[in-house]
Amino acid sequence: EAKGKRRNPLHDFKKTRELMLIKVNKTLEVKTKLLNTTEQCAKRCSRNKGLSFTCKAFAYDRVTKRCHWLSFNSLTNGVRKKQDHAFDLYEKKDYVRNCIIGKGADYKGTISVTKSGIQCQAWNSMIPHEH
User: Fold this and answer.
1) 73 within domain boundaries
2) Among residues 5, 47, 61, 70, which is most buried (max CB within 10 A)?
3) Is residue 47 part of a domain?
């Protein structure tokens, strides 16, 4: 990155216009606050600043300028998608990406089978292969 230039925190998020996530599972957490820009929401979500959970997504209400940080995303069980013209949904790419970048050490996606359909070996298991 060039000296003096800041990286846009929104680059780590996948944006879906006019969509909000509704939690059906009551144990999932949400925190809201008035913030002027989606960049401010993204920065706070990426750093988990002031949140008691790992932020996986946020929804920005363009009308009220309110950020809703979410402990879940669209792939989480107990979550329903809702079309809403006031909101844009931003999901952390690490949690919705279905591919592995590099060695996969930071992979947080949901794929757990190989291309041929074989169940993946758990990281904490040495069976059937050693790491």
Assistant:
1) yes
2) 70
3) yes
CA 97, CA 109: separation in Å to the nearest integer?
6
Dig out the tokens for 63 from the structure.
């009308």
* Contact assessment for residue 89 and residue 80, using Cβ atoms and an 8 Å cutoff: no
At residue 65, the 3 state secondary structure works out as coil
| CA separation, residue 59 to residues 1, 4, 121 (Å) | 28, 29, 34
If one counts the domains in the chain, the total is 1
- Give CA separation, 33 vs 25, 37, 38, 110, 130, in Å: 22, 11, 12, 29, 47
Report the CATH number at residue 19.
3.50.4.10
